[in-house]
From TrEMBL:
InterPro entries: Acyl_CoA_acyltransferase. It comes from Nocardioides islandensis. The lineage of its organism: Bacteria, Bacillati, Actinomycetota, Actinomycetes, Propionibacteriales. This is N-acetyltransferase.
Length: 152
């Protein structure tokens, strides 16, 4: 691994997870408007989701599309540099953004990485299935033994 990389140099990070209920793909600038619409429509729901309770994100007042784009560019750069992995969660029926998954180095030495996810309030029934599918995926296809699921 490089100094900042969270995966070994010879590891090829998976770029998709497909289930009957959702599809994950790397988050990038192309998702800006749909991502912004997804989380701004669900701020209270996200802030009450395990892993986000007490967090500063999402900001209760929202943010501009331009600020959101800057965040998406940063997440895409982290993915490219292997510093962290953020995935948009898409509805397989229409391709709309319904959530997000973040896998980043843990700040606690007891864990290799921390995984958090959220879904739109309108898709709240997928909150636990998404978190469980991501946990299974990380255990099966990623190189970490110690994944902090943020209490899930």
């Amino acid at each position: 691994m490089t100094a900042d990389a969270v995966v070994p140099a010879d590891f090829d990070p998976p770029t998709h997870l497909v289930t009957e209920d959702f599809v994950l793909e790397p988050l990038g600038p192309q998702h800006n408007e749909a991502d912004h619409a997804a989380w701004t429509s669900s701020i209270d729901h996200i802030r009450s989701t395990t892993g986000f309770v007490g967090s500063s994100w999402p900001p209760p007042e929202g943010m501009t599309l331009e600020s959101n784009l800057a965040d998406l560019v940063r997440h895409a750069e982290d993915f490219e540099q292997r510093r962290g992995f953020t995935f948009t969660v898409l509805d397989p029926a229409d391709g709309d953004v319904i959530g997000c998954v973040y896998v980043y180095p843990s700040k606690d030495d007891a864990w290799d990485v921390s995984a958090r996810s959220w879904v739109r309030a309108s898709h709240a029934h997928l909150d636990t299935p998404l978190a469980d599918a991501v946990a299974d995926w990380l255990a099966r296809d990623w190189p970490w033994a110690r994944v902090d699921r943020r209490g899930r």
